[in-house]
Amino acid sequence: MSVTVAAGQLVTIDGLLHEPVITVEDGIITAVETRASHARAVTQELARCTLAPGYFDIHMHGASGHDVMEAEPSALDIVSGYLARAGVTEYLATTVTASLDVTFRALEGIARYMRRAPEPGAARIAGIHIEGPFVSHAKKGMHPAEYIVPPSVKLLDRFWEASEGNIRLMTIAPELPEALETIARASELGIRASIGHSNATKAQAVAGLEAGATTATHTFNAMRPLDHREPGILGVVLDREDVYADLICDGEHVSPEAVRLWFKAKGPKMGILITDSLEATGMPDGVYKLGETTVHLRGGRCTTDAGVLAGSVITLDHAVANLRRFTGTDISTAVRMASANPMRMLGLPDPVTVGQPANFNIFDAHGRRSGAIVRGRLLEA
Q1: Is 276 a catalytic residue?
Q2: Going edge to edge, which strands form the sheet with 301-304?
Q3: What is the CATH number of the domain that holds 228?
Q4: What does the pLDDT look like over 277-308, one tens digit per residue?
């Protein structure tokens, strides 16, 4: 079935296209034109609205009362449906450090779920992000120390097999023994390595990048602090123009001042917005889980029993809005950092191009997100 959607503006990888008309067949974009070049009737008229790419969250653990490590279809359906209503059309289901048995079970369950066609109007799991167990004890954050294990090519291969080849991203501390070999193996498998949960020095961070790492996990959080003589992992990540860096833009994990520093350093092309969202996202204050760890949600802040900050309760629509509020940047730039940038980091095609899923966010004339289109299906916000 072919439909056409017309809007006032379209955010593309190159900027803004005025008066676009997008043709969609069976949920796939088949043409991107303008009103001047499109002679046929329009099916969906959004004349005063701006269309932008659907969001892609590369780091999220759960939402709406469910953790992706449950790895059950009913739980993943709820998470995927919740994300779609927030404008997230694709995501990486992100595991957290847990016992190996639990980790393998989660990888296998997510892989089975990915064999199915996505539910109509639900976000699609585009792969898996393993955040742990290859993290530093010194910068473990909320990751349980008893389940942290040293990086290992052999263990990564076992994770890869359990995931049916669906791991797309791996967080790793580059200073750990065998980390560089594990990063190199990840590159061979097509997994992007992200340096994070790390106490790496400048030299160790550079070694990780030279081994094949391409990005950094939740910049500022769970990293060695910046020092003017030993800039460490943070200084390297902010300085290097060839390294992506993601950030939790909830106003809780990183102050607005630090968000602006990150934005100035990484610019609109190398910065990536993430959520690190938990099952508590969209839920009232209470007690929840992240993997096997208990977390407490109070007033928008999640902490462990020990009081350690543990993930966020935002979705990417809030991260985009916060970035605009903190930095004053425009819709096009903020949206790019939640859509095209994570896709490019993962080596995926640019969104809003012919042959790609018809995934969009809709902004009204006042710049407020008012809905989404998920594989051609219109959803209200």
Answers
A1: yes
A2: 286-290, 293-298, 301-304
A3: 3.20.20.140
A4: 999 999 999 999 888 889 999 999 999 988 99
Q: Check whether residue 37 and residue 166 sit in a common domain.
A: no
Q: Quick one: what percent of the chain has pLDDT higher than 90? A: 92
Task: Give the helix/strand (H/E) hosting 49.
Answer: strand 44-53
105 with 170, same domain: the answer is: yes
What's the pLDDT at 42?
A: 85
Q: Give the structural domain span for 45.
A: 2-52+354-380
Segment 242-255 shows an average pLDDT of 97
Residues 175 and 91 in one domain: yes
User: When comparing pLDDT for 35 and 216, which is higher?
Assistant: 216
Q: Could you tell me if 245 and 266 are in contact, meaning their C-beta atoms sit under 8 angstroms apart?
A: yes
The pLDDT value recorded for residue 36 is 82
Instruction: Give Cα 30 distance to the centre of its chain.
Output: 26
Are 174 and 71 contained in the same domain? yes
**Of 57, 67, 276, 317, which residue is the catalytic one?**
276
How many structural domains are present in the chain? 2
Start-to-end CA distance of the chain, whole Å, equals 24
Q: Measured between alpha carbons, how far is 53 from 88 in angstroms, rounded to an integer?
A: 10
For range 74-94, the mean pLDDT? 98
Cross-strand partners of 57: 91
Please list, in sequence order, all residues whose beta carbon lies within 8 angstroms of the beta carbon of residue 177, skipping any fewer than 6 positions away.
150, 151
* DSSP 3-state of 123: coil
Residues 59, 39 within the same domain: no
340-357 mean pLDDT? 97
| pLDDT score, position 35 | 86
Q: What are phi and psi of 234, to 5 degrees?
A: -65, -45
Shared-domain flag, residues 116 and 158? yes
Token pair for residue 369?
């997100």
In whole angstroms, give the CA distance from residue 268 to residue 372.
Answer: 23
Same domain, 256 and 241: yes
- Amino acid, res. 151: P
**Would you list the DSSP string of 329-356?**
--HHHHHHTTTHHHHHHTTPPPSSSTTS
What CATH number is attached to the domain comprising 30? 2.30.40.10
- 39 and 155 inside one domain: no
